[in-house]
Amino acid sequence: MAKIRMVDLSKQYDNQDRKTIDRFNLNIEEQEFVVIVGPSGCGKSTMLRMLAGLESISDGELWMNDKVVNDIPPKDRDIALVFQNYALYPHLSVFDNIAFGLKIRKTPKDQIKKQVEKTADILGLTDYLKHKPKSLSGGQKQRVALGRAIVRNANIFLMDEPLSNLDAKLRTHMREEIMQLHRRLKATTIYVTHDQTEAMTMASKIVILKDGYIQQIGTPKEVYNQPKNIFVAGFIGAPTINFLPGKLSNEEIKLLDGTVVGGVQQPLFHEGDVIIGVRPENMSLTSEQKGIPMSVRFTEMMGADMFVHGEVQGEKWKIRVNPDEDICVGETIYIQLDANKLHVFDPHTEESLYPHKELV
Question: SMART domains in the record, alphabetically (predicted)?
Fold first, then answer.
């Protein structure tokens, strides 16, 4: 089993003014499934390559168990890598693709056969061991790539957007398979993605990254319910959160027109301008007398839900409603906010005004 500790890890390329990764601090416990998530270009794949030893570390310390591994070569780090592109050898069979790393390490043939067959059984690839990659589906190719990592019995798995080349239905299926594998193998896993759905459904701990800086670390529930700043609130959650400028006065949260939408959940010692955040599922339809007017621009029928997109006080908003509601484009509906689910942010720092504890 493996514990990982990153202390002020930084990466700066010679041809860049700013650091790609800046003072990255994170503790990963044995058997955790940690997802690093963020938009394209935020540094998440660079971070993973630093862990693997494929990128040098400009500053800071990387600990694996009780040893600093900054200068330890990749082959000696007891890690297994799964990349976005399957990187299979087209001229080799599934068996030989899975066995390739073992052969490089001069593992005895009888042991290779035993380990490959066991891995193929875990991944449902037994019937395909003699096939070449060109005859496999995308999901099967990804299983072979996973098999090549699993067969090594490594203590640490690093996965770099492994599902991004698959269609939506297959991604959902492969997410389930990867989680089942994690529970079975109990390897410490670090998974990089730009897809917040993958992060929310797979992670025991999420690390949200932007421009090389950690924005928040927490469980999926924590980062969703207690976002540290406007970026996290907007990045996590589908459909995205709604924002509206407002005021905080006498511990009451108000819209700019003076409408009171709720009270603070704890004393915030803040008066004046705020940014109010409310998720589409934390609002409901109400009467004209009780509600905030929202002009309807379009609707999205999603089966079990309907999302209504419109405008509230000049800002684009969306609300989740029962799909049986009869709502037409161009009409005005009236909404009320769940006062217990409101987020309030400082408009200058964009930080949440509610304090929160940080996992590290």
Answer: AAA
Summarize the confidence of residues 9-30 as an average pLDDT.
93
Domain 4-230 = CATH 3.50.50.60: no
Q: 176: how many CB neighbours lie within 10 A of its CB?
A: 12
Q: Is the pLDDT of residue 40 over 70?
A: yes
Distance of alpha carbon 302 from alpha carbon 22, whole angstroms? 40
Element (H, E) at 330: none
Q: Give me the sign of the Cα torsion angle 14, 16, 18, 22.
A: negative
DSSP 95: H
Q: What residue segments make up the domains of the chain, in order of their start?
A: 4-230, 239-345
Q: How far apart are CA 51 and CA 46, in angstroms?
A: 9
Average pLDDT of the segment spanning 175-180 = 89
Look up the CATH superfamily of 239-345: Nucleic acid-binding proteins (2.40.50.140)
Spatial CB neighbours of 214, under 8 Å, sequence gap ≥ 6:
24, 25, 26, 207, 208
pLDDT score recorded for residue 164: 84
Concatenating the DSSP letter of every residue in 219-245 gives -HHHHHHS-SBHHHHHHSSSSPPEEEE
**pLDDT tier, 254 (very low <50, low <70, confident <90, very high otherwise):** very high
State residue 334's pLDDT score: 96
Same fold, 4-230 and 239-345: no
Q: Give me 175's structure tokens.
A: 């997410």
Token match 């940690």: residue? 34
CA distance 43 to 199: 16
Query: What are the residues whose beta carbons fall under 8 Å from the beta carbon of 112, sequence distance 6 or more?
Result: 99, 102, 103
Sheet containing strand 242-249, strands side by side: 260-263, 252-255, 242-249, 272-278, 343-345
Q: Given a cut of 90, is residue 359 above it in pLDDT?
A: no
195-253: per-residue pLDDT in tens?
989 999 999 999 999 999 999 999 999 999 999 999 999 999 988 999 999 999 988 99
Report d(CA 297, CA 311) in Å as an integer.
7
